[in-house]
Design brief:
The protein is an alpha/beta fold. 38% of the residues lie in helices and 20% in strands.
Length: 312
């Protein structure tokens, strides 16, 4: 395996689980020559760091929905009771805790590139079977075949080289074990964000290129294609749907103002007038013109894929 030099050894990283692979893509080059790819990766990492800087804010914006999705991914991944599971891009711990809650004997290791997120997840954990540590999805430190299942939740679409991440996930999983992943269907099935970006781009057409529907691996069939290209066996794909319930319009709107993710970063950069205009467009769309405030419910679909590690 090539020698990877993890970026977090040279930088102060305080981003979320989504940085798990972006910063890890910085490679050691002969004679420390910086290439265009290096510089582009580091610029992307800086951008992600700004968008995902607070674990508590991420929890309010997206973490609460990750916790709903995680149990469905555990069931789909056919995690049995016993053995070991690796959670790649563990963030605030949603998937690791879902495995913990679904089993009585299974050991879980969650890795994330963000020390802040690792600390947040660790502080929420009281089970000796579960551990969290800083780690890089594209250069895992774990031994070959160390896990029965390796799973990632809402991460692979943010990895600069998802093929390398999947190869690493396969390497640390025993032959006959399972590799699985899930990403939001940003283009169609994730109504919370689809509603937001529809109104944001209607208000400002220049933002169409920032719409999260442009993200890789978020369309039906793309995760499965990635897994088949990696030579996983018995690959399948399915849609996982959860219901997002908001107690009020502000429960929907205010988390966008916390600056997390592409949508939050967009909101944070708006002028007061533009911010108010976007808020009113969203309120009208969700409640009707002049409509009274009320609880809101939105479906959210993620595409999940899994495959079996072949004999080595």
């Amino acid at each position: 395996m090539p020698l990877f030099v993890a970026c977090f050894s040279r930088m102060q990283i305080r981003g979320p689980l989504l940085l798990i692979a972006l910063l890890g893509s910085c490679l050691a080059k002969p004679k420390d020559i910086a290439t265009v790819d290096d510089l582009s990766t580091r610029q992307g990492a800086d951008k992600e760091q700004r968008m995902f800087s607070r674990a508590d804010a991420y929890e309010r914006f997206m973490g609460r929905w990750s916790r709903q999705l995680a149990p469905a991914l555990v069931v789909y991944s056919e995690v049995n009771d016993g053995g070991a599971v690796l959670d790649v891009g563990s963030g605030t711990g949603a998937l690791a805790f879902a495995v913990r809650d679904a089993t009585t004997k299974t050991r879980v290791l969650g890795i994330d590139l963000s020390p802040e997120y690792v600390s947040y997840a660790s502080s929420s954990n009281k089970d000796a079977r579960v551990h969290f540590e800083v780690g890089d999805a594209q250069a895992l430190r774990q031994s070959d075949g160390a896990f029965d299942h390796t799973i990632s939740l809402l991460v692979l679409n943010f990895v600069p080289d998802p093929r390398r991440a999947v190869a690493e996930m396969m390497r640390v999983t025993r032959p006959g074990g399972t590799v699985s992943s899930a990403v939001w269907d940003y283009g169609d099935g994730m109504e919370m964000l689809r509603t937001f970006w529809d109104e944001a781009t209607a208000l400002d057409r220049t933002m169409a290129g920032h719409d999260e529907k442009q993200m890789p691996l978020c369309k039906q069939g793309e995760l499965a294609a990635l897994f088949r290209a990696a030579k996983l066996e018995a690959v399948s794909e399915t849609g996982l749907v959860v219901r997002m319930r908001f107690s009020s319009f502000d429960d929907y709107w205010e988390p966008f103002r916390l600056g997390q993710g592409p949508a939050g970063a967009y909101v944070a950069a708006l002028s007061p007038d533009h911010l108010q205009a976007l808020r009113e467009r969203l309120r009208t769309r969700l409640l009707g013109r002049g409509g009274s405030d009320r609880p809101l419910e939105m479906p959210a679909r993620a595409w999940a894929a899994k495959g079996t590690v072949p004999p080595r």
